[in-house]
Amino acid sequence: MxxxxxxxxxxxxxxxxxIAIGIDLGTTNSLVAFxxxxxxxxxxxxxxGGTLLPSVVAYAAxxxxxxGRVAVRHPQAIHSVKRLMGxxxxxxxxxxxxLPYALAEEKSAGMAMLEVDGRRISPVEISAEILKxxxxxxxxxxxxxxxxxxxxxxxxxxxxxxxxxKDAAQLAGLEVLRLVNEPTAAALAYGxxxxxxxxxxxxxxxxxxxxxxxxxxxxxxFRVLSAGGDAQLGGDxxxxxxxxxxxxxAGYSEELSAAQAGMLLQQARNVKEQLTDKDEVLxxxxxxxxxxxxxxxxxxxxxxxxxxxxxxxNQVLVDAEIEPEDVKGVVMVGGSTRVPIVQQMVxxxxxxxxxxxxxxxxxVAQGAAIQASALAGxxxxxxxxxxxxxxxxxxxxxxxxEVIIPRNSAIxxxxxxxxxxxxxxxxxxxxxxxxxxxxxxxxxxxLARFELKGIPPMPAGKAVIAVTFTIDADGLLTVSxxxxxxxIIQEITVKPSYGLAPEAMERMLMESMExxxxxxxxxxxxxxxxxxxxxxxxVRRALEVDGALISSDYCDRIEAQIASLLQASExxxxxxxxxxxxxxxxxxxxxxxxxxxxxxxxxxxxxxVQEVEQRLAAIxxxxxxxx
Length: 627
Ligand code: ADP
Ligand code: MG
Fold this sequence. Notes:
The protein is α+β, with helices and mostly antiparallel strands. 39% of the residues lie in helices and 25% in strands. It folds into 3 domains: 20-234 and 304-384, Nucleotidyltransferase, domain 5; 388-502, Substrate Binding Domain Of DNAk, Chain A, domain 1; 516-619, Substrate Binding Domain Of Dnak, Chain:A, Domain 2. It is built from 16 helices and 27 strands. Strands 1, 2, 3, 4, 10 and 11 form a 6-stranded mixed β-sheet that branches. The chain has a 4-stranded mixed β-sheet with strand order 14-13-12-17, with helices on both faces. Helix 6 packs across helix 7, helix 12 packs antiparallel against helix 13 (552-570) and helix 12 packs parallel to helix 14.
């Protein structure tokens, strides 16, 4: 064994080649951490000694890419690209003015793209630049390249946003060992996986977003019970409030130029951060003036915003039917939780001191590092359980959504459901994968379609098609369909080109509740239509085979009733369809009897008396059981 010699006070960083890093890819700031050989979690610094890498990217005139603090100074710096991950242009329209750059749509992919100097750049590429910078930071610290990482994502990230994050990692030359939900990572950093069982909340107030999640720790496994928050609320809003306060104090009422406004906001942020440790700050803003801002003034200005977070917190508890006292601990995450009044209001709401002894900027990266180390070391003892945010299912006959994996199911999971063919000799089946909470497919989000081909010709209802939905530990969905008698199989990894914005997700959930009654009505209507259609098909089949058994006049009456049922089916009146279907049924009773007699006659030929009696008894019994 070789002896290692170090300078006093210098601890060498890990030498193993298979070291895996944990990355917090944040909206405002990103970080990278790892677990050292002695088991300690270390968050890596940049050359200036800071751990935060501003999630800002700029493209210099010479084509060079700038990331972090250097990019912030660039006039066309790109901020908050995380908000665009896996989103279509329609999804981000709601962000509107909030985005400081122009957006375009990539027609083929449906993905929102950024327009920078006439060039189109995807959010995935921009995120990849941030990841590359973090990867380089780790490589510099270790003295060798790093290729494996655990990356954290918000709990509400849907399939598309998760996939986009993985794509960004791939572009950056990183293999993603796992995507972990941010609140789960924070809980890991606090060692809650070793704590007693119970309910924990993770309160994450960052630069531009507020996320609140409820985690349940049970038998050594975490489960995100529910999540909520506000995608447009964070420390940036505190800056705005404070900037307004500063203008008011200075008695300044003139219009600000864009440059002035930017400078004022920067100043406000600075003052805000100082007020975390000081009771008052003396500040001077060029052209506007010099004045003192007290913590008290600042707190009064932002109280309504903090109140909004407490309301959202309460809502998540109400949804999960949990009382604030039942929460065992609240983990504080995100730079904005440093603000004292935030700490106080959370403590008052929950009736206990929040967990805040770890650096709130770093806890998510720390948890990611712990998970990375466990996964790279082959140990899987920290099994993380997350839930899927919206129900996943397929379209069935009549445009109905058949849920296969209900929302809030723990992942990873795999669920199979059997379907059959609707028509005789049907050789293909469309599998349309949808996500959402509504009963009708057209009100849910379409994720993907594929066709299972080569089903052998069989009567309707005979083929058995098993459709399996599998969500892996990263929350990504794979769907396969198999015809069981022939073992013909088709599979698709669902990779939608754009995803759901948290607001859209929220809206879909809200709508499902608001429209529950309407949905039920629509479902019942669709079911009545299906029944009517099947009834008509059955009568027509019977007429084809046995039409000769009845008079042409009777046959015409049946045809007329079929026509009126089909017409009713086109309408929206379920009762009319049901009544018309019942009338057809009644009208056909005589025809059914004629067919029964014929069947009896065929069956009775050449049988002994005893056999005939037995068969008659069996037929009577069957008739009785059908009535
Ligand atoms: P994100 O998760 O969105 O990437 P962070 O968790 O890094 O964001 O939080 C960034 C926010 O935290 C910024 O608004 C920043 O001003 C705020 N912040 C950082 N340090 C302090 C502090 N000492 N006092 C108050 N706010 C702070
Ligand atoms: Mg964060």
